[in-house]
Amino acid sequence: MAYINDKNPTVTLTVKDFGDIKIQLFPEVAPNTVANFISYVKDNYYNGLIFHRIIKGFMIQGGWGASKNDPIKGEFNQNGFKNPLLHTRGVISMARTQNPNSATSQFFIMHKDSPHLDGGYAGFGQVIEGIDVVDKIASVRTDFQDKPLDDVIIESINLDLKDYKEIPVEYIK
Asked: In this structure, which topology does domain 16-160 adopt according to CATH?
């Protein structure tokens, strides 16, 4: 919670049949990751997508689809970038493959603390309202691949830039 302040941009995820999750983004922690996420939000990319991977006691993951952009460099310690944000309950972080520079559109929100992710994934914000919605989503029934049996749909994500000065996203080509 050390990075929360009134000047940071916020997003509000409206999840069908579950409610709203309000997240404050931390550009001072992971500037390119925040810029990348905001670019997807501004393009309404996430609207209608689902939380496709849910593991109670760990995280809920969304944003999977036909990513519109090239990957970005992973902003985390194991990749040579100082990112002190820990993967505690409510932190939002970028998903990636085993390639540390493969993050595009997928993100995950921590349901519970997961210190084994610290330094290896780009945390870039924190849930400030709606952690109860994260709890409800984390409790849905899933199949053997952690996919919800019933779709958990992101209806929309609204953005409030506040004092955030937009920067161009640096993609890996």
From this structure: Cyclophilin (2.40.100)
